[in-house]
Design a protein that fits this description.
Blueprint lengths: L7 E5 L4 H12 L3 E6 L6 H11 L4 E4 L5 H11 L3 E4 L6 H6 L1 H21 L4 E7 L22 H19 L4 E7 L1 E3 L18 H10 L5 E4 L11 E2 L1 E3 H17 L2 E7 L5 E2 H12 L5 E4 L8 E2 L4 H7 L7 H14 L9
Parallel strand pairs: 1-2, 1-4, 2-3, 4-5, 5-6, 6-11, 7-10, 8-13, 9-14
Antiparallel strand pairs: 9-12
The structure holds nicotinamide-adenine-dinucleotide and UDP-4-deoxy-4-formamido-beta-L-arabinopyranose.
């Protein structure tokens, strides 16, 4: 690990999908970890299993970022040296219906976190941003200096936080901040012990396909078969969640050695269509995925995939897993945990 031994890292949203995988990577890399999560969408069981997988223990604080006194208590008790900030609401569709909830949770919650970090002189932060901030980017692969033009309240909440972070770094030179723009996370830890457990009907493609393969849902609806792509269906840059988790450890190490602001995409640089994803999942699971092509989903773009050279160069990190690995691990998790983290599996 580059930097001090057993650096203390607070992971907000560490009971969630990407956060729980990142906790495993951090603990395996020798960091001392605490999780702050209100369990609104995360699972305490995920935290327990992250400890089991890494063979290390972590501290868990059930706290809400929007409650400053709560956040201060966590900082007082744990005394973190750096923060990885995942906690947020993430549904595009819900954000259109309830914009204030998104601005409160994501923007106001982040402002409170940053205030408390400032009070405690904790100035090292890795922030979860999203490729959603690029909106309808004109060119693929999408590079970090593409125009920022999100088209929905979720994406705008992330773009606002990105702006706040750049203003903070401009105001005080000793901050160390990484803004990481993830493309489409999928898959699960190869052990099948932790994975993605969305509440209700999944809106993202990979968990939906996995539930169709398992027979929990009868059919996939493919949103649009007339895009300007090789087979007419939408193309995305899917990235294995373990690659993403390792990317956070690499970014944290980079910040330990570098001050200022860095912004980087986390993706593989390779796009796959919905139909390619369906075929790969059928191959890996051995189950048919019945589907029907329906109309386009409003707000979707034809193609989105990342320029990856910046993260690779700066963080000395590169995604290792391919599409079949992602499908294999998503499937293993689904088969081992047909009802997700709930106890009545
Ligand atoms: P997730 O919902 O599984 O994890 C988020 C965690 O934050 C949950 O455990 C939830 O309980 C917690 N949380 C939410 N609001 C909170 C609050 N006010 N106080 C304390 N805890 C709170 O989501 P995820 O997929 O792991 O995403 C993690 C981050 O990555 C989010 O910031 C998301 O916007 C971003 N992101 C996700 C994706 C994706 O497709 N999964 C893509 C790009 C960016
Ligand atoms: C992928 C492809 C759909 C579901 C969203 C957010 C983004 C990020 C990741 C948080 C598209 C198609 C999907 C289905 C389908 N999250 N699809 N049938 O829209 O690229 O990105 O999640 O930051 O911000 O916008 O991901 O998984 O919803 O869709 O045909 O039932 O699958 O049209 O082409 P998306 P997705």
């Amino acid at each position: 690990m580059g930097g001090s031994i057993r650096m203390k890292v607070l992971v907000t949203g560490g009971a969630g999908y990407i956060g729980s995988h990142t906790c495993v990577s951090l603990m395996s890399a020798g960091y001392e970890v605490a999780v702050l999560d209100n369990l609104s969408n995360g699972h305490f069981e995920a935290v327990l299993r992250a400890q089991q997988l890494s063979g290390h223990s972590l501290r868990f604080y059930n706290a809400d970022l929007r409650d400053k006194a709560d956040v201060e208590k966590v900082f007082y008790a744990f005394q973190p040296e750096a923060v990885i900030h995942f906690a947020a609401l993430k549904s595009v569709e819900e954000s259109i219906r309830e914009p204030l909830l998104y601005y409160e949770s994501n923007v106001a919650g982040s402002v409170i976190l940053l205030q408390v970090m400032s009070e405690y002189k904790v100035k090292q932060l890795v922030f979860s941003s999203t490729a959603n901030v690029y909106g309808h980017a004109l060119d693929v692969p999408i590079s970090e200096d593409s125009h920022i033009a999100p088209t929905n309240p979720y994406g705008r909440s992330k773009a606002m936080i990105e702006q706040i972070l750049s203003d903070i770094v401009a105001s005080e030179a000793d901050w160390r901040v990484a803004r990481l723009r993830y493309f489409n996370p999928m898959g699960a830890h190869p052990s099948g012990i932790i994975g993605e457990d969305p509440r209700g009907v999944p809106s993202n493609l990979p968990p939906y396909i996995a539930q169709v393969a398992l027979g929990r849902r009868s059919q996939l609806q493919i949103f649009g078969g007339d895009y300007d792509t090789p087979d007419g269906t939408g193309v995305r840059d899917y990235i294995h969640v373990v690659d993403l988790a390792e990317g956070h450890v690499a970014a944290l190490n980079y910040l330990t050695n570098n001050m200022g602001l860095v912004t980087a995409n986390l993706g593989t640089g390779r796009g796959y269509s919905v139909l390619e994803m369906v075929k790969a999942f059928e191959r890996v699971s051995g189950h048919p995925i019945p589907y029907r092509i329906v109309g386009r989903r409003s707000g979707d773009v034809a193609k989105s995939y990342a320029a990856t050279n910046k993260a690779e160069k700066l963080f000395a990190w590169k995604a290792r897993f391919g599409l079949d690995d992602m499908c294999r691990d998503a499937w293993r998790w689904q088969v081992m945990n047909p009802s997700g983290y709930s106890r009545n599996n």
